[in-house]
Amino acid sequence: MNKDNPQITIDDIINNIKYIDNQEEVEKIKKAYKFALNIHKNQKRLTGDDYIKHPLNVANILSTINADAETIIAALLHDTISVGNANIEDIESKFGKEVASLVSGVTKINKLNYNNTTEATINNHRKILVGLTEDVRVIFIKLADRLHNMRTMGVLQAEKQKENANETLEILIPIAHRLGINQIKSELEDLSLRYLKPDVYFSIVERLNKSKNERNKYVQEMMDNVSILLNEHNIKHEIIGRAKSIYSIYKKLDKGKRFSDIYDLLALRVFVDTVSDCYQAMGLIHSKYRPVPKRFKDYIAMPKSNMYQSLHTTVFGPDGNFFEIQIRTYEMDEIAERGIASHWSYKEKGKNLMKGMEDKLQFFRSVMEIKDSNEEDMKNITEALKNTVYIYTPKGDVIELPYGSTPIDFAYRIHSKVGDSMIGAIVNETIVPLDYILQDNDVVKINTSNNSQGPSKNWIDMAYTNQAKNKIRSFFNKIDKSEYLKIGEELLNKELRKRKLPISEFIIDENIEKILSELHLAHVNDLYINIGNGKFTPLQVINIITKEDINKEETILNRITDSNESSHNGDIIVAGIDNIKINLAKCCNPIPGDDIVGFIQNGIGVNVHRKICPNISQVTEKLINVNWNDNIIDKYSTHIIVYTDSTKDLILNIVSSAKNNGISIKSINTNKNSLKNIYDLKLSVKDVDNLNKYMNQINQMTEVINVERVIK
Ligand code: MN
User: Fold this and answer.
1) Is the pTM of this model over 0.85?
2) At 71, which CATH number?
């Protein structure tokens, strides 16, 4: 089982990666080897081997799951920073951005210290490991790194061996399992058992060895019989006798089974070409060998969450032996053994591949989150992936927060009660203001008081995470309920008047019932409160009733409209500052050509408004000059409303005119009453000229009273 190979050379690896057919990439792998060789030239492993043998072995393990060139290169370089003295800039200039980000990813997660793990922190560590990893390939390298370290762990002290084995079992193996990389997972399990419970491990090995010849004889006989059976029915197949892993036997013994009772010690795996062959083969086998009741599992119809598919059954074989038989297609086998790594694909290289893998990782992240988090947390975690800081409590627990977080976020992350009663924060033994931006490895202590009056409203702006913002808001929501109730009712009535919808006709039981059920509210008071606190806009509420009038054309339009959103960061120049995050204000939706101004939002970036936006007109502080860049290619979202004086439907004219001007309509809502039609349009436009021309054309339609750009 010890597959460590101290004699391994770069030629072995080149030999193993024949699946990479791009010669340039192969040369780059050789270059990475030379680079690592030079960095590690005088370094030795504890085993006494040259250090370079470790990255070579890690790369070799990854070649067995057909890792791509970047992953192999990053594996060769993975210790050049933390163990050697290479730097990331050098790696980036020699091997490119992608490799550099993989190497720094591995370096980063290797720095994490998982000692003294309790149930809660184990869960946390798994999350952090996954959360830290933007690119799933970093996790593959980490797993291969650990696998080789475990294979060569014999030289370590027993205590250290146990610690590593424990950590592998608790943190890395569940990740390997979720990713479905059975090949690596199974060897890690066996190695962990070998160091955690050597006596159990070796006694299983010994018993397996003793019964080996006998078992081989039975398995061979059964393989021959099944093969004859399938051939008689023209099912093309291959059969292998399958060794159960030592760890899986241990698990069964641990559940109280006796060694002689573990029937699936005799195990076969049948490979066929198609899914229907799987079921047919299963049927034939069951017709000849009696199945053991309740042992049949159809993971083809119902795949496991890590995408594993197979048919499993156990049958009574000749001589009264039990055989566990798995039947699967070659494709299913690929996924079973390599999990999401089986999706490496060298023909469709590029974005699609990465995107697919990211989706898998995302899926995996969500699986890990499901147990103890709500949707809001999920969103926060996803947001946090790019720029994350790791903060310590005074007790040494790690808390993961997005960069930009303040002590307020930290306090609310620990508990709402801590946040609500916070009176100050101490970072690294120094008192800090509450809008202090937390840095990696800060030790944060929150001072609380029972006499605290609760959070103050400007904490909402100081907090960075939605979680904290929402918790502060919900503190005020409780207090402000009666106030919001009043405001909400006023807002709704005002909007109804504006739209010439008689209040007495709108606020009727039938409509209210519909609105409450649509918005999942229990009582009309809740409706007003939620309008008052801004959760729903009055228009949103009114639309629930009036949207029934929306034409079928619009439904079709909604389906085909373009909703492509991009970040526009380079399109706006902020005087004197590079690389700052730009957010376009949703209230006034600025587009190129508009006079604009920036509002600095601490720790987030610059919010860009139109100069005429009333929301910014009161503000004097924190404003900054911003300008549009000259050559903008992106399209921009904006919002207009068209009022017409008849009930004649202008929707087709509006849409075709947009098309003529190269403007895409992202959504369209119609309000109709007996006097007029109101079209509410979300557009994607090039710039102000583009928009004005379009609005003029609409204005020239005889039925149109007015067209206006919306500022909320
Ligand atoms: Mn390493």
Assistant:
1) no
2) 1.10.3210.10
Residues 264, 295: one domain?
yes
pLDDT digits (tens, 9 = 90+) for 146-178: 999 999 998 889 888 998 898 888 878 877 877
> Do residues 17 and 73 both lie within one domain?
yes
Distance 245 CA to ligand 1 centre (A): 25
- Kindly give the distance from the C-alpha atom of residue 147 to the centroid of ligand 1, in angstroms, as a whole number: 10
**Is residue 503 a part of any domain in this protein?**
no
Give which of 447, 384, 346 is closest to 72, Cα–Cα: 346
HEC readout, 597-620: EEEEECCCEEEEEECCCHHHHCCC
Rounded mean pLDDT, 59-87: 91
Distances (CA, A) of 347 to 28, 68, 344, 352, 482: 19, 11, 9, 11, 62
Q: Decide if pLDDT at 482 tops 80.
A: no
- Residue 187 alpha carbon to ligand 1 centre in Å: 17
The rounded Cα 76 to chain-centroid distance in angstroms is 27
185 with 250, same domain: the answer is: no
Neighbours of 245 (CB within 10 A): 17
Measured in Å, residue 201 CA sits from the centre of ligand 1 at 26
Task: Let me know whether 184 and 54 are in one domain.
Answer: yes
- 155 in the same domain as 41: yes
User: Whole-number mean pLDDT of the chain?
Assistant: 80
Domain-embedded: residue 17: yes
| Domain assignment of residue 600, given as a range | 564-631
Domain for residue 581, yes or no? yes
How many A from CA of 109 to the centre of ligand 1? 11
DSSP type of residue 456 = -
The three-state secondary structure class of 521 is coil
Q: 148 C-alpha vs ligand 1 centroid, how far in Å? A: 8
Q: Region 95-110: what's the mean pLDDT?
A: 88
Residue 365 within any structural domain of the chain: no
Q: In degrees to the nearest 10, what's the CA dihedral of 130, 133, 136, 139? A: -70
Instruction: Answer whether residue 590 shows pLDDT above 70.
Output: yes
- The total domain count for the chain is 5
Which of 574, 601, 631 is the endpoint of a domain? 631
User: What spacing in Å lies between the alpha carbon of 618 and ligand 1's midpoint?
Assistant: 57
Do 581 and 654 lie in one domain? The reply is no
Mean pLDDT of 480-507: 83
Strands (E), 289-448: 297-298, 311-316, 322-329, 388-392, 398-402, 422-427, 430-432, 444-448
**Confidence band for 78, pLDDT divided at 50, 70 and 90:** very high
CATH number of the domain that residue 698 is part of: 3.30.70.260
- CA–centroid distance, residue 145 to ligand 1 (Å): 5
Residues 671 and 704 in one domain: yes
Looking at per-residue pLDDT, the higher value among 416 and 178 belongs to: 416
407, 431, 464: which is the final residue of a domain?
464
Distances (CA, A) of 637 to 249, 600, 686: 60, 21, 9
